[in-house]
Amino acid sequence: MTVFLRSLRALILPALILLPVPAMAQMCTIPADPAQDATQYDRPDDPWIYRGTDIPVDRNWLFGELPNGVRYAVRRNGAPPCQVSIRVAIDAGAINETESERGFAHLIEHLTFRQSRNFASGEAIGYFQRLGTSFGIDTNAQTSPTQTIYQIDLPGADRPKLGDVMLRVAGMVREPALSAENLAADLPIVLAERRERQGPDQRIAQATQEVLYAGQLLADRSPIGTVEALEAATPASVRAFHDRWYRPENTVVVLVGDADPQFLAALVEQTFADWQVAGPATPAPDFGDPQMPEGADPANPVGETAVVVEPGQARGVIYAVMRPWEEITDNLEYNRGLLIDAVAQAIINRRLEERARAGASYLFAQVQQQDVSRSADSTFVSFAPLTADWETPLAEVRGVIAAALASPPTEDEIERAVAGLDVTFVDMVAQSRIQATNQLADTIVNAVNIREAVASPETFLEVFRGMRDRITPQALLEHSRKLFTGQVVRGLYLTPEAGEATAGQLRAALLAPVAVDASAGQDLTPISIATLPPIGQAAGPVFRQALGTGLFSTTEQLEFANGVRAMIRDSDNEPGRVTVQVRFGRGRAAFSEAEAPYIDLGERALMASGMGELGQNELDRLGAGRKLGLGFSVGDGVFTFTGDTRAEDLADQLYLFAAKLAMPRWDVAPVERVKASMVLGYDALDGDPTSVLNRDLEALLHGNDPRFATPDPATIRGTTASGFREVWLRMLQQGPVEVSVFGDIDPEATITALSATFGALPPRHDAATGPQPEPFRAMETGGDRVVLTHAGDANQAAAVVAWPTGGGSAGLPLARKLDLLAQLVSNRLLERLREADGASYTPFAASDWPRDNDSGGYIMALVQMQTGAVDTFFTLVDQIVADLAANGPSADELARVVEPVRQNILRAEPSHGFWLGQLQGGTFDDERLRHLPTLGTDYLGTTPEEIRMLAQRFLADRQARRIVVLPRGGGVEAPSR
User: Ranges for the Peptidase M16 N-terminal domain (predicted)?
Assistant: First the structure.
């Protein structure tokens, strides 16, 4: 670019974006009103969650207890602004069910949203949408084996709105309408959810649970329940479960958000203090303990084992060393022990990974200690064999673990693991000021579930750093031995082929003596970027300018003499957080069709293959004690590196990305490992309708272009390391480069680091491109459809209707309105197929509009349902399209879509990630910047008539592509054991 053109750019760029994004944000912290918010009940000096512990009380929380037994925790938090997160946790889940009640806890969760004291039947979803919540995201509930949680993340909260919401939420929990009519409406939805979840993953999870928790309630207490129990449910039996467990003493209410804690505490009292339930509380059932097998060797008490045959699934082994779960006193000493456990596990996992990289017979392996559903304290070991030989990798994994139990780790290993945890805790402290309200609320709910207290990030860091002298080789040896000592060892082998093993053979292998693997202990000397070759001669920017005023005054655009462009944005509202994004090349469009198999392979293996002097192990050493990321993705029209880092590690992060472009390394092992992973996982993509769509849909919606296809095993095996290098070397060398650094940065130090890395790159070549991706072609007649098949259950099907739209940044205002159109279709599908008919649990529609290509966009409606019902879906979609094209939505219907979008923008605006997402690509594409000021009005100003015209233009007037996924050969039977 000439100096003249740079000067011209300096003149015109600010004019494009002098107007800021519409100022939709508002100051909305809700203050306390002494006249309205006086609490009646005292809050003791020893908050209930800290009772009996020496963990310092986090004074940001206000804890209280009501005379009826309801406990609460409230806290002021302004991230995101104007939001209040509500959680009501009932201390009862699937484990609390009797045999005849299996699935009732989850069923009641659905019924609670159907109708209650202050909601007429079917009114709740629309009510919350009008307040700006997205159903299923901001408004949701979940049932686990031990808890049922109702959760509302309320945006734009003010005093009247929050007061009304709390009144309604309390009415939902306390007085749901458990009528025969509502049961008849919600039971099909629950059964549809159960049907859609059934598949290989669910069967494997159920089989694993039955083996690992044999003899305990958890073995057969999946929250989804059984068809028999659900179909036998009556209003009386469901009411009996509700009355037994939905009681004040089983309830914890959590409110976190942009409001004075005194006001929040008063709200809890006003809505829950008068809740009374007759009769004494029912004690929780005995969950049971893992039991040592009769006559077992206490040194190796192997118990239940199983072999599960699930066609198409990748092989895997899991075994667990299990101990009884015990409710502990959650004090500082207990947490010091957990931290030593964490260091011990990190060392073992690093050794397992290094063994895999060195050519082990397993793809990956991991150990993890976990307390599960108040049923067991377990140390899990899992790995994926590379072949049908599962015994060799089992011996290898056990050998690595045996080494950790035979000899203490080295000081270098300890220091590396400690440095990694220290970075994590430092980051937690830095982020604590902006921790999201929903995360804080969930923290309390989770702590209640596991019967532990909560500690501030500062406490975590202080405790960890204060105990460094206790993290000794001997202490780690002792903790490792305890982690692998228990009441019983249980295991399961998953295989796609019958006859590979028996439960007895797996048990014998776990009982067999193990040979200690003494290969651990490679060079762990820390690596510094300063010792590595420079990218080139540092060169500062030749152009630097702020993007504009106001919201853009802290965003600068840079250009270097080699053609690299950059954007930097300094934002202090996210302390310690920095995101680096590097966009380069032309993405999928740069590949020929013959090169297509290297796309997915590169997305997974490119960064692992190294850069300069750094292979995978060296990258690990470099990352010790640092916060660095090596994300890579392939877009339709661009490649992207992404790394989350912090200011002190920013220069190293930039060096790694620039080094990948300037001096890529081509280690073969990571490529071969990823190839093995892709081959092993491919057959699993045939196991159910969703997996088939994940495999095939993008190719179908892009004219069967192989660059959008999932390569099959034969194609993957046909790739080579030399071919990988040839293709990706060209990709790394071509096309423009844009670097974005957004977050808590020092702008001048950032520019210095950019000058030494991306400014030092040689000039880039123009990117050659293959054939442009084509939009999919609609079927010739409305009755035609593409039929795919799956090898899963006979009652599972999926159907898709898709309409081509467009793409390109020039069409961003149109793309935003198409988002609204798609959401309107989605809401209508949900209201009809789920809420009214119970035919599907997750129907939805969405719009995809690529910004880096001028074509390839689409609106898509997708549903999972029973095999014989897909024609109903197609008919309904046609009816929805015809009505929207003829009449458009009502004003209220459109408002239920627009308000959640408005609130999402409000909540996202403070984040630098929001601005990065909006501005990315803007240094080479002025259209992105030109359309940013209308972001808000494009959504908020959309009228019902505009939606009607868009529905006519893009849906009614365009022939849709219809895709069906049906069972092949009648589906599958239950897996063999």
Answer: 81-199
Please state which CATH class domain 529-760 belongs to: alpha beta
What CATH number matches the domain at 786-967, 3.40.50.720, 3.40.50.300, 3.30.830.10, 1.10.760.10?
3.30.830.10
Tokens of 686: 């045939």
**Centroid of chain to Cα 399:** 33
- Cα(605)–Cα(674) distance, integer angstroms: 6
Residue type present at position 461: L
Phi-psi region of 333 (alpha: psi -120 to 50; beta: other; left: phi over 0): alpha
| Predicted confidence band of residue 572 (pLDDT cuts 50, 70, 90) | confident
Reading the block at residue 258, the tokens are 């942009």
Tell me which residue of 793, 548, 559, 764 sits closest to 687, measured CA to CA.
793
| Dihedral pair phi/psi, residue 293, rounded to 5° | -60, 145
- The answer to whether the CB of 248 falls within 8 A of the CB of 69 is yes
Q: What share of the chain is helix, strand, coil (3-state, %, to 5)?
A: 45, 20, 35
**Strands, sheet with 786-790, edge to edge from the N-terminal-most edge strand:** 786-790, 961-967, 797-804, 858-865, 844-848
Q: For residue range 902-945, list pLDDT tens digits in order.
A: 999 999 988 999 999 999 999 999 999 999 999 999 999 999 99
Q: Using CA atoms, how far apart are residues 179 and 112, in angstroms rounded to an integer?
A: 11
The residue type of 956 is A
Supply 722's token pair: 């030399």
Between CA 151 and CA 195, with CA 133 as vertex, the angle to 5 degrees is 65
Reading the block at residue 72, the tokens are: 């609460």
Q: How far apart, in Å, are the Cα atoms of 551 and each of 100, 576, 722, 761?
A: 59, 20, 48, 31
For tokens 């997708």, what's the residue? 862
Instruction: Return the amino acid letter for 618.
Output: E
Q: In what order do the strands lie in the sheet with 148-154?
A: 61-65, 71-76, 251-257, 84-90, 148-154, 139-143
Q: Which CATH class is domain 69-272?
A: alpha beta
Supply the pTM of this predicted model.
Answer: 0.94
Write phi, then psi, for 634 (nearest 5 degrees).
-110, 115
Structure confidence at residue 771 as a pLDDT band (50, 70, 90): low
DSSP secondary structure string, 301-337? Answer: -EEEEEEEE-TTPPPEEEEEEEEE-------HHHHHH
Give the DSSP H or E segment for 71. strand 71-76
3-state secondary structure of 417: helix
Q: Please give the Cα distance from 919 to 552 (Å, whole number).
A: 10
Compute the mean pLDDT over every residue in the chain, rounded to the nearest whole number. 93
User: What string of DSSP letters covers 423-488?
Assistant: HHHHHHHHHGGG--HHHHHHHHHHHHHHT-----HHHHHHHHHHTGGG--HHHHHHHHHHHT--SE
Q: What is the DSSP letter of 777?
A: P
Overall CATH class of domain 302-511: alpha beta
Distance CA 274, CA 327 (A): 31
First to last CA, the chain: 67
Question: Which parts of 33-103 fold into alpha helices (H)?
Answer: none
Q: What is the CA radius of gyration of the chain?
A: 29
In one-letter notation, the amino acid at residue 415 is E
Q: Strand, coil or helix: what is 20?
A: coil
How many Å apart are CA 512 and CA 394, to the nearest integer? 11
Domain boundaries, the chain: 69-272, 302-511, 529-760, 786-967
- Angle at the Cα of 614 (from 590 to 605), degrees rounded to 5? 40
Q: Give just the sign of the alpha carbon dihedral 396, 401, 406, 409.
A: positive
The pLDDT of residue 968 is 92
Q: What is the DSSP string of 708-760?
A: GSPPPHHHHHT--HHHHHHHHHHHHHBS-EEEEEEES--HHHHHHHHHHTGGG
